[in-house]
Each structure stands twice: as C-alpha cells, then as structure tokens.
Amino acid sequence: MPIPTEITIVEVGTRDGIQAEKRPVTTEEKLCLLEYIVAAGFRRIEATSFVHPKHVPQMADAEEVLARMPRRAGLEVEALVPNVRGMERALRCEIDTATLFVAASESFNEKNLRAGSAAMLKAGAEAAKMGLAGGLKLRGGVVTAFGCPYEGRVPFEAVERVVGAYMEMGCAEVNLADTTGMTNPSAVSRLVEHIAGKFPTARLGLHFHNTRGAGLANVLSGVQAGVDTFDTSLGGLGGCPFAPRATGNIATEDTVNMLAEMGVETGIDLPKLLEGVACAEEIFDRQLPGQLLHAGVPEWEAGAV
Ligand code: ZN
Questions:
Q1: Which residues have CB less than 5 Å away from ligand 1 (the ion)?
Q2: What is the domain range of residue 277?
Q3: What is the pLDDT of residue 2?
C-alpha cells in the first residue's frame, strides 16, 4: 500500500502528557505550552480532559484552559470525555471534538477506569448521544487495544467489539491506543488490517507510548498500513495515572522530523515546535525523552554546520 503523503498529528501533550506529573502543573504553564503548540500550526490539539478532578487533579482547570488557550482558523480543539457529567462540562466550553474512551480489556476497565466494559460502553453511548446533539464530533478511544498490563494479549475480537460500539455511537474516528507501550510493528499492522477489514468505513487513528522504545517503529508500521492520524506529545511527555509503568507518549518532534525526512507532510513548523519543547523542559526542569531538541534537525545542504 502506498504510504499517505500527509499525516495529521494530534498533539496530546497538555492532556496525556502531563496528567501523571507529580507536581501540579499550573494553568499558566499549560497555556504557555499551548501558545507554542498553536503557533507551530497543529490542526488538532487534544488540550485537556473532563475526567473528574478527584481522579485526575491535573485536569481540574479544563474549563479555564479551554477559555484562555489561543485559537487559530482551522484548528480543531479536542478534549477527553468519560461520561455524561464530563460531556455536560464539555458542552459548556468551546471544543470541536469529544474523545470517549473504553479499554478493550475487562480488567483495565475494572481496575483503572472503575467500571466494567459494559458499564463503560453504556456511559460512553449516553455521553455520545448528548455530544452529537450538542454539535460535537466524536472520537472513540480504544484503551489497551494492543496489550493490557493485567491480561497481556488483547484478542482482536475485544478491540472489534469496542470499535463496533463506537461506530454505532456515531464516532467520526476511532483511535487505537497502546496505552502501556506493549506493542510492536508487526502487531500494529495486523490489528490495523483486521479492524480496517471489519469496518471499511472507519477512520482510524493510532496512539502510541514509547515505553519500550518501539514508538516510532510502530508509527512507521501504522503509516505503511494506511493510517494517517497519530497522537503524539511534545518532548515525549506523558504517562497514565491509571496505567502502571506507562511512560511517555511518542515525542511529537521526533515523529514530525522522521515523517518530514520521509517526505511526508504534517504541516507543523518544526523550529517553532522545538521552542515549545525547550519551554516544556524549562517548566518541568528536566530533559524530556524527545531526542530532536538535543540532537538538532539534520542539515543536508552542502556547507551546513
Ligand atoms: Zn496515552
């Protein structure tokens, strides 16, 4: 299959990226990162989450972040929405897309998302109805689609069930997530081909964590399987408060650079994005996992330093 010539990157740094940070990240710090992210030209940003603040205190300021973040024509702002309560909050804010989420594995739902799969899907369906009526686009997140920290291998049928439910709910896109970074390039292409075969009209996105270093290889495999939408976080910030041992998302700048070197367009201004990564390293006071800021963008012109 020819690889897509354009890829959409969904920046999730201020959502997935910081929700597991130990110290509270201030609203001002989030807005500072969003300034750089918006200036770098992303078309889609998953800015925050309407998960209950008791469960994810880092996202308690979702309303304020959305009210104050910079906007630009053509920019779609997205937020994670777990249930009807979250959707009520989301509908009072200026967002384009609500991302629902359910794990493909029963134990992950029960242990980490506090409800069984059936209850999670029911809550999702109620929230979906409300979101669609309110004019939002829906995105369905399939957590642990590529492996579960409790159950290990997740059968394709389990992923299929959640994707089928999302299609019925009216999701415009389904996002398959390797929540704890367990997968590999072969497994990525097998699952993508399986799901695309079962749901030929589904728009698919992929969400990888670089927990075991296979992140960019998995992106390449997804691209080669025809997927054109990927979640990444600047600097490779990330982790999941509910997922044991989950580490950072794949780094936006490393992904954008790899794709650019392959001749695949993302529309993102890399130098501007790297300014944002530098700002994130200042905010979090440590070197982040993303490598491009420290390695530099490759220079190919004769005489370049
Ligand atoms: Zn994640």
A1: 16
A2: 8-295
A3: 77
